[in-house]
């Protein structure tokens, strides 16, 4: 048995004593479902063994069991042979040191049990606050009806050759306890800097699972047992976050998205909430002027750590237009000193005008991003205030209602 496989098994093991005969059916005590169609099954029963050679028959096991991962254990016993009897039975020849009644534990990996996280979110009417619900979608194609079981979900995604490794399982970590969010409701006052003081609210979290994380890997352990029948797909509520402060944002990046002014919302889970969001699809709803719920679409939510800003793209901004027009271009020969310094002989000078129109009834702020390559510098700029970061320049502009705003710059690249 691979040493690392033993480590992952022991790290996930929860012992539950069940009264079972040597060949009786077993109950599942726990499923730990990883990404990439892989799960760890943990089962326990009590067996009565006689001194010498015994046979233990165990069923049902998953029909998609990974046989090389099977790890049986009974104290004071030596497992001599193992045999799989289709469709879902395991049999062992076991040598016992004495007549004994002992807990018999089996752990194994299986395919055929999948999970993924998805979200539903509702934006308030003025898009200043958002409610977020997290769900685990589970599919069971293992050939076994599981239940009632303790179940946990992990975002760990092992490759086939890594199945069984311990390093990234977000459970125990020597000398550094994993981060945990309590199962009770948490209420902490929270606001984003861009939210006005009169619109502050309290963010609250209610949860159906204890959440652990370590080094970006997330582990959800449900509070109560559930049933999971074969060929069943179900959704299980994990947590809800209420009254998250959000801000509408508008951006323009012509190199990436052409002339589209993009609309989105941004938020962050404050450090004090001690909560992390897994990457997943989010189904976004809102409330219109008549108080009816409307659907904004299916978006991708990136993994979001405590204190990290999260952006959700909503789509092209309605009533806001942008265009990027090149107004000049020329190639110039560098001076001898410049040729020697830059190791280049030709430079390119060009200028652009970026024009924005706002047909809405209220002013909007737009983040405008321009990209540059090689050695470059801005020769002229209007407005003069911009942020230079890496190979980008960012302008923050405000366009009045029914108004127009222009950006002009001239640059040189080599």
Descriptive keywords:
414 residues; mainly beta; Immunoglobulin-like; 3 domains; twelve-stranded mixed sheet; nine-stranded mixed sheet; 3 helices; 28 strands; disordered N terminus
Could you give the topology of this structure?
Layout: H1 3-12, E1 28-34, E2 38-49, E3 52-58, E4 71-73, E5 77-85, E6 89-96, E7 100-110, E8 113-123, E9 129-140, E10 146-154, E11 179-181, E12 186-190, E13 201-207, E14 209-214, E15 217-222, E16 226-228, E17 232-252, H2 254-257, E18 261-268, E19 280-287, E20 293-301, E21 309-316, E22 320-333, H3 336-342, E23 346-358, E24 364-371, E25 376-382, E26 387-389, E27 392-399, E28 403-413
Parallel strand pairs: 1-10, 8-19, 17-24
Antiparallel strand pairs: 1-2, 2-7, 3-6, 4-7, 5-6, 8-9, 9-17, 10-15, 10-16, 11-14, 12-13, 13-17, 14-15, 17-18, 18-21, 19-20, 22-23, 23-28, 24-27, 25-28, 26-27
Overview of the structural elements:
With 414 residues, the chain is mostly beta strands. It has 3 domains: 3-111, Immunoglobulin-like (Sandwich); 114-169 and 179-316, no CATH class; 320-413, Immunoglobulin-like, CATH 2.60.40. Helix content is 5%, strand content 57%. It is built from 3 helices and 28 strands. It has helices at 3-12, 254-257, 336-342; strands spanning 28-34, 38-49, 52-58, 71-73, 77-85, 89-96, 100-110, 113-123, 129-140, 146-154, 179-181, 186-190, 201-207, 209-214, 217-222, 226-228, 232-252, 261-268, 280-287, 293-301, 309-316, 320-333, 346-358, 364-371, 376-382, 387-389, 392-399, 403-413. Strands 8, 9, 12, 13, 17, 18, 19, 20, 21, 24, 26 and 27 form a 12-stranded mixed beta sheet that branches. Strands 1, 2, 4, 7, 10, 11, 14, 15 and 16 form a 9-stranded mixed beta sheet that branches. Strands 22-23-28-25 form a 4-stranded antiparallel beta sheet, with no helix packed on it. The radius of gyration is 30 Å and the shape is elongated.
């Amino acid at each position: 048995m691979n040493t690392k496989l033993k480590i992952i098994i022991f790290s996930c093991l929860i012992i539950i004593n069940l009264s079972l005969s040597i060949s009786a059916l077993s109950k599942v005590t726990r499923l730990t479902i990883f990404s990439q169609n892989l799960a760890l099954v943990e089962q326990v029963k009590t067996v009565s063994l006689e001194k010498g050679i015994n046979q233990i028959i165990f069923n049902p096991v998953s029909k998609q069991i990974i046989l090389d991962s099977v790890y049986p254990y009974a104290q004071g016993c030596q497992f001599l042979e193992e045999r799989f009897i289709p469709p879902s039975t395991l049999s062992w020849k076991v040598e016992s040191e004495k007549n004994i009644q002992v807990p018999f534990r089996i752990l194994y990996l299986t395919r055929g049990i999948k999970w993924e996280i998805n979200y539903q979110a509702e934006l308030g009417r003025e898009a200043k606050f958002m409610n977020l619900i997290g769900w685990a979608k589970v599919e069971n194609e293992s050939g076994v009806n599981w239940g009632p079981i303790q179940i946990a979900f992990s975002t760990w995604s092992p490759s086939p050759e890594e199945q069984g490794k311990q390093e990234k399982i977000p459970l125990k970590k020597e000398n550094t306890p994993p981060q945990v969010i309590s199962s009770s409701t948490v209420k902490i006052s929270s606001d984003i800097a861009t939210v006005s003081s009169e619109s502050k609210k309290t963010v609250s979290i209610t949860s159906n699972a204890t959440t652990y994380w370590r080094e970006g890997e997330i582990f959800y352990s449900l509070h109560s047992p559930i049933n999971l029948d074969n060929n069943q797909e179900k959704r299980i509520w994990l947590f809800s976050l209420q009254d998250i402060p959000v801000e509408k944002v508008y951006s323009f990046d012509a190199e990436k998205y052409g002339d589209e002014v993009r609309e989105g919302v941004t938020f962050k889970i404050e450090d004090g909430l001690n909560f992390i969001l897994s990457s997943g699809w989010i189904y976004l709803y809102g409330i219109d002027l008549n108080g009816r719920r409307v659907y904004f679409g299916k978006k991708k939510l990136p993994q979001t750590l405590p204190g990290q800003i999260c952006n959700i793209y909503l789509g092209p901004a309605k009533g806001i237009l942008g265009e990027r027009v090149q107004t000049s271009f020329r190639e110039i020969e560098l001076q001898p000193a410049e040729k020697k310094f830059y190791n280049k002989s030709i430079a390119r000078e060009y200028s652009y005008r970026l024009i924005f129109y706002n047909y809405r009834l209220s002013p909007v702020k737009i983040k405008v991003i321009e990209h540059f390559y090689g050695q470059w510098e801005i020769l002229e700029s209007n407005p003069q205030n911009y942020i230079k970061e890496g190979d980008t320049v960012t302008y923050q502009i405000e366009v009045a209602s029914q108004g127009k705003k222009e950006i002009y710059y001239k640059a040189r690249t080599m």
